[in-house]
Write a structure and sequence with these properties.
Blueprint: H1 2-102
């Protein structure tokens, strides 16, 4: 009988010991999950900050490119106008000097007739 009593006490002590170990394991697991969630939140906040910064950089770059593009279009218009003006001026000089040397006149298209 005494042996049965000791056996029951030993089994009871083992069960209590196992329960204590399991509780420690779950407590440790819960702490690790909590730490992981804290790290995850910090990483999320950091990524959001970096995303916002990159987004702002991209917006700034897009604005610069847009302004440069508008300036390029304006310069292209200026360049085209200057080329047109220089062509007209060149034609006017040709016509003026041709008139002096030939004594001729320009035709309806504004070109000076040639003797070819």
């Amino acid at each position: 009988m005494k042996e049965n009593s000791n056996l029951i006490q030993n089994i009871s002590a083992m069960e209590n010991s196992n329960e204590g170990r399991n509780e420690k394991k779950f407590k440790n697991f819960g702490k690790r999950v909590d730490d992981f969630m804290v790290d995850l939140n910090e990483a999320s906040e950091k990524l959001q900050r970096e995303f916002r910064e990159k987004f702002e950089e991209l917006k700034t770059t897009a604005e610069k490119i847009k302004k440069e593009s508008e300036n390029n279009e304006r310069w292209k218009e200026v360049e085209d106008s200057l080329k047109k003006a220089s062509d007209e001026l060149g034609n006017a000089f040709k016509a003026a000097f041709k008139k002096r040397s030939d004594g001729g006149s320009a035709n309806a298209s504004g070109n000076v007739p040639t003797n070819e």
